[in-house]
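Protocol step 4 of 5: obtain the predicted structure for the target chain.
Materials: sequence only (see below). No template structures provided, no constraints applied. The aim of this step is simply to have a reference model before the mutagenesis design in step 5. Sequence pasted as it appears in the construct record:
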Amino acid sequence: MTESLPRCLLIARQGPEDREDRIEDHLLELAELARSCGFEVWARRRLKRPQIASRTFYGSGQLEALADEAARQGVRHLICDDELSGSQVNAIEKLTNLICLDRTGLILSIFEQRAQTREAKAQVELARCEYELPRLKGAWTHLERQGGGVGLRGGPGETQIEVDRRMIRTRISQLKRELAHLEQVRKTQREGRPKGMPRVALVGYTNAGKTSLLKALTGEGEPRDLLFATLDTTTRKAWLGQDFDPETGEGDAEPKHCLVADTVGFIRKLPHQLVAAFRSTLGEVRTADALLVVADAAHPDLEDHLKVVGATLREIGCEPEDIGAQPRLLVLNQVDRLHRPQKLELKKRHPGAIQTCALQGAGIGEIRGWLRELIPGPPKPRTLEAWELPEPVPAP
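Step 4 output (structure tokens):
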């Protein structure tokens, strides 16, 4: 007899400036995250509120009404699309009698389930510790201060929260030392790779088809229709073909190869703790000779996804305006799900991109041709697209 999945209710705040369809898209993505974490999504709700409530983030009346409805349906988990403080999570749980999880906590739980290697497990644990540390406040208010010193004349001692903070800070220090060692090992591995063989990194929004593209280019990889299926960087050798024309005898008859690295996917509101913890893994992106930016061409939020990728690349130190910046090729994957007019519209919006279907092998030859022309050699100047530019700073 199979055990039923825990049911959850998804909520998101909709302010006066937020479009209804945009909030609904965010809830749909949150639903995919919840399913990836092992939940059954019972319902999605948009909570309209002009201002954020300092105590519960959402309106207490709205939360109580939802809690009554959820209790009748046997729902025990409340997942919020917004990032909440520890005190807000505690206040919501007391008000609703539901187990509350915010978006950051949900993504961390998914990463914890997916982590397999020693490095990935250490990175996720570090992110979890840094996420939990400022949220300890109020968790132990029911405990009295522990006695300190010897006998009755001892000092006031430590509260449980102080003990927990000290333990978490100690663990954070241990994990950072371990990751520094693993980063040095990774650096040594990079230096030991064949000299003169270019390195290409696959980057993009989660579940856009990076692993499928890795398999199409190298013959290796295990594509899965799953958010954050790849946490550990996988590097494989790819054959690019020959720059040789048998009719004229011009070109290089020597076959060209490169190393292709599949990396962890990005997502909107990606917890900064994870970006910081995975910095050593994302070092493959910073040190690559070129980037293949993979996007799901058929996704309705394609342009938003590209902006998230552009912003995340900037956050990890890949500035496209820098002198000597890595060349980038935008790969619009899964075009087999589009009609011809949609493909033509995409070509107008992104004229420099290559449209592919990695599973069917369409467009792979064009990618290999781009890499052959590019590598080796200095980056060619190009005009940045809108998704690569920094977000404008709003006027005060």
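Step 4 remarks: The mean pLDDT is 86. The first helix runs from residue 20 to 36.
Proceed to step 5.
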